[in-house]
Amino acid sequence: MRNKAELYQLKHGARAWNFTDQRKAVTHAGIEYLPVRGLQRTAIEDESIDKCDTEVTFPQMHLLNAQGEDLAAVFAGKIFYGGVTVTILELYQGETLVLHKGRVTQPKFDEDADTMTLVCETGESYLNRNILTRKFQSSCPNAIYDRWCGLKFDEWAFEVKVTAIDGLNISFAVMPTQKLDEEGKPVMVDGDPIMEVKAYPDGWLNLGLMLKDGVNTLIASSAQNSMSLYRRHAGLKVGDVALAAPGCDQSHKTCNGKLNNAARFGGHLYIPNQNPIYTQLIK
Question: Which terminus of the chain has a lower count of CB atoms within 10 Å, N or C?
């Protein structure tokens, strides 16, 4: 390869899109990078942490991966907040150079030019941000299933099969699971496992998570065999099997009564209604 070739790999959960700025497809490390006419980026300035970002511009059409999934649909549906990672490689005379590795922070659409520009930042610039730490509040600041919450998603999740999709409203059937005894051991009869279909009350999945293809989507509300998603889950179709897990409204009542996790509750239950500095110390 005489000329320099740039390779762009974007990943969202278990899905990946691989493109190149060349006129023909390029195979590198066993991965085929598809040509995209009009693919370009801004200069990458690396003299300081705050200036090592770049913007990658794609035409909005023909951004399909090998499975036929559209990259633009991920950003148009605003589901990218789970994290789309970006790796830009440069190939020249058999050598490989990593130009940029980070994540997409913002998509920008230009309908007149029919382009989509992805603002990409590196991990260094992300870590250099000033962010709000924990607040003194009555509700729990932990996100369910994070390391501070302590609950394990895999232990609470169950499989559901999508039976109907109406916008953000999803109907599903709970998949059978192996029956367990009081000690948590599988129940067997003549060497065969006993299966059961569990029932869950209305609201069990409220503020919970649905996981499909490595991407989490928040469940806004739920009833028996139905749920309403916070945003569209790209690629979800009738017949798919996904994992669903219950949520938490960050209250002590839900944490203790529903999830039995009060020992890790991070809120402050007894915050006074009035600031004691003004009501008691200063008179």
Answer: C
The residue range of the domain holding 16 is 5-127
**What are the start-end ranges of the E strands in the chain?**
5-12, 15-20, 26-28, 31-35, 40-41, 54-59, 84-92, 95-110, 115-122, 158-166, 169-174, 177-178, 188-189, 192-193, 195-196, 209-212, 215-223, 226-229, 241-245
> Tens of pLDDT along the chain (283 residues)?
457 899 999 998 888 999 999 989 999 989 999 999 889 999 876 655 555 688 999 987 778 888 888 888 787 655 555 578 999 999 988 788 888 888 888 888 888 888 889 988 886 666 666 666 778 889 999 989 988 999 999 999 999 999 999 999 999 999 998 887 877 788 888 778 888 888 899 999 999 999 988 888 899 999 989 999 988 887 889 999 999 999 999 999 999 999 999 999 999 988 887 777 776 655 5
115 and 181 fall within a common domain: no
Q: Is 174 among the domain residues? A: yes
Same domain as 251, residue 160: yes
Asked if the structure places residue 276 within a domain, the reply is no
